[in-house]
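Appendix C reproduces, verbatim, an entry submitted by the partner laboratory led by Prof. M.T., so that reviewers can inspect both the input and the predicted structure.
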Amino acid sequence: MTINLIPNLIALLLLCHQSNSLSVPSPKVERQQSRRDAVFSIIRKPILSSLVLTTTAPIIHVQKATAAAPLQPSPPGLQQDSRMYIPGVAGGARYVNLIVEDPNANEPWNPTPSLVTNLGKARIVANELSPLNPSLMPFSSDSNELYYDPFLFGAWKVTATLKCKIYPYGTNYLPSISLMEGSPRNREEKPGDTTIYEMHYFSPTTNVNKEDEMIANDKPPKSVISEREFNTRSINLAYKQLSQIKNVKWDYKKDPTRLTIEFETLAQDMQPLGEKRAEIYFNARKSETGVDSNTDEKVFCASERSRSVVVMPGDVVVSDTETITEFRLVKGSDGNHVKALSRIAVYLTPNPNSKEGILWQDVNGKAVAFYDYEIDMRRLIRMDENGKQRICVYTPYGARQCMTMP
């Protein structure tokens, strides 16, 4: 999410590029695909123990763009479309809207009533989605970083539940089979699975060596950004991604739009993975603030698009994703409880010399997969030596930022 991205991001995400089809591979191709699927593994030390709750087989259905009737579930078990398909033929991709939901849910996933901002309504519940456009002022300092609402300052315990997977054009357009079996965060993640991790948001102040640097008069920070280095490691550990992180380099003062990740050469089970490095470029972002007129709760929505370039022995994988998250400050929580709706959109890359490039033309550059999450965030509070509750977080430079609770 932009919790990404890592939001995201958000959290941050890497997609696998697959030059051959999604049919059953030979042993040699299967080994190569396993290496490519390891590209999904990105994202400091385990601050919170991670928890993944796995459900039974998902509910799958196809909804037409104009259908108003209730969704009819198909038999469990997502299978690849077996019909004859030739990329680049028949006038482009056909919209089918294949949806995979939690089989234990009481009703179909529908985040629309909870969304407030125009940005969230336009991108989190879109049936088809084109990539977010870069800023019209690329050389402006404000355009190079995604600034969050100050109510997100501090360290948060995040509980994320995958609610739904959507394939607008079916599974033939996915760049990797792991996106059908799981998600960009874990190749085995199913709708209904819940994962717990920690996220940090800090104030990008100028004095990077001073402790308690924004504590003056206990005023909240004017601007807040994601601590991408910590958050990337945290998500990697929580989702038990195959490739564990060795080192993360990110300098928010010199170039906040670039993050470099070096991976361990051995998996947790001691399986050799080889050397691997990822360069992540955050190349477009947009945000919007609002207030829910029904509850008077403050709302903030952010969207960020990124491109990852993963370099492995004999292979380079390029992938594009976008994380859109709408945060809601829960009324009556003293600012310590936030709920969010988040979508990870997966795009193909326009490589003219590959099958993926042809598929990219078929879908006109639009997203080929959506992964929708429901998120609950609880702020982590510490007691100081005087017994006062404080909100604290560390910057990538090691400076501590704190604010006393009201």
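Residues 1-56, 64-77 have pLDDT under 50 and may be disordered. Additional entries are available on request from the coordinating office.
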